[in-house]
Amino acid sequence: MAAASKEGDRRFSPIRPLVRRGLSRAEAAAYLGISPSKFDQLRKGNRIAPPKVLDGRLIFTIETLDEFLDGLPNENETLNDDWTASI
């Protein structure tokens, strides 16, 4: 691909992908590793933060999706902080 030929002519690099902060519903579900229908269930239950809105389009931010995922319990996690207590 040719490089930008004049100032103001911006093209995306074919080598370096564009980092996106906002995702569509389907992209947000894929980012979390779940189906769009499961994503909709989580939204309906208010477990996922509301999206941003731009001209009627819903945009889910990477930051809020990361917060949701980070807040989930680990497998076999209990209220006891001592993980050896369950062994």
Characteristic terms for this protein:
87 residues, alpha+beta, three-stranded antiparallel β-sheet, 3 helices, 31% helix, globular
- Give the DSSP E fraction (strand runs of 2 or more residues): 5-15%
Enumerate how many helices there are, as a single number: 3
**What distance separates the N and C termini?**
58 Å
Give a quick account of the main beta sheet: strands, pairing sense, barrel closure: 3 strands, antiparallel
The shape is: globular
> What is the spatial order of strands in the main beta sheet?
1-3-2
Q: How do the SSEs run, as a string of H and E?
A: EHHEEH
- Please tell me the overall pLDDT: 84
Q: Which percent bin holds the helix content?
A: 25-40%
Number of strands: 3
